[in-house]
């Protein structure tokens, strides 16, 4: 092989690698916790009861349905005990459709999720992809929330923003903060005239 052809082959391989790296990240508008709370149609603390992936009717896309048992309807969903989400991607047999940045759910997992309105098929989605899913973890008998943004590229005002796993936050304080931002029942009551000594 002559040097020119070798150079072309190396250039094509380099472009293919760059394209592959870009394909393993999803870029999404960065949302603050306040943005998530206010823009969401509903917010629920829930336990994942079922995760099922299947082909769509045209056998072109794989979708995953996630069934949640609602433990605490923080915003909306009052009186409802379950909600089913749907998102693109999943595994059917030996075929996997992976969408970087899409939240992953496991049966038995406890979560706080920020949800959109129902789509045309009647399913809500997680707001802001992985930004809208907080996993509940237990440490030393106390519950905390964690948001892992490892596979999500965030953009703020047209510029790349930092996307890292958020520090663990106590679950109660996290929920109280959301309720306070939304000015809903159950929010922390603050005395406007605290006692002075």
- The low-confidence parts are 1-23, 186-194
Please count the helical segments: 3
Amount of beta strand: 35-45%
Give the beta-strand count.
Answer: 12
Summarize the structure.
The protein has 197 residues and is of the alpha+beta class. 20% of the residues lie in helices and 37% in strands. It has a seven-stranded antiparallel β-sheet, with helices on one face. Strands 1-10-11 form a three-stranded mixed β-sheet, with no helix packed on it. Strands 5-6 form a two-stranded antiparallel sheet.
Describe the protein in words.
The chain has 197 residues and is α+β, with helices and mostly antiparallel strands. It has one domain (27-180): OB fold (Dihydrolipoamide Acetyltransferase, E2P) (Beta Barrel), CATH 2.40.50. Helix content is 20%, strand content 37%. It contains 3 helices and 12 strands, in the order H-E-H-E-E-E-E-E-E-E-E-E-E-E-H. The protein has a 7-stranded antiparallel sheet, with helices on one face. A 3-stranded mixed sheet has the order 1-10-11, with no helix packed on it. The chain has a two-stranded antiparallel ribbon with strand order 5-6. It is globular and about 45 Å long. The model is unreliable at 1-23 and 186-194 (pLDDT under 50).
């Amino acid at each position: 092989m002559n040097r020119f052809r070798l150079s072309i082959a190396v250039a094509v391989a380099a472009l293919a690698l760059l394209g592959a790296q870009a394909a393993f990240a999803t870029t999404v508008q960065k949302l603050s916790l306040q943005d998530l709370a206010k823009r969401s149609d509903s917010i629920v603390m829930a336990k994942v009861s079922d995760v099922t992936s299947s082909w769509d009717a045209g056998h072109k896309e794989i979708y995953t349905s996630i069934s949640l048992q609602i433990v605490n309807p923080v915003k909306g969903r009052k009186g409802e005990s379950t909600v089913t989400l749907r998102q693109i991607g999943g595994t059917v047999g030996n075929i996997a459709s992976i969408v970087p940045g899409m939240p992953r759910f496991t049966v038995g997992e406890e979560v706080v999720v920020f949800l959109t309105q129902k789509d045309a098929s009647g399913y809500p989605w997680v707001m802001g992809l992985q930004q809208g899913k907080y996993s509940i973890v237990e440490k030393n008998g106390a519950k905390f929330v964690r948001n892992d943004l490892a596979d999500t590229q965030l953009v703020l005002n047209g510029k790349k923003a930092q996307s890292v796993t958020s520090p663990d936050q106590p679950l109660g304080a996290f929920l109280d903060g959301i309720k306070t931002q939304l000015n809903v029942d159950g929010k922390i009551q603050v005395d406007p005239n605290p006692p002075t000594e």
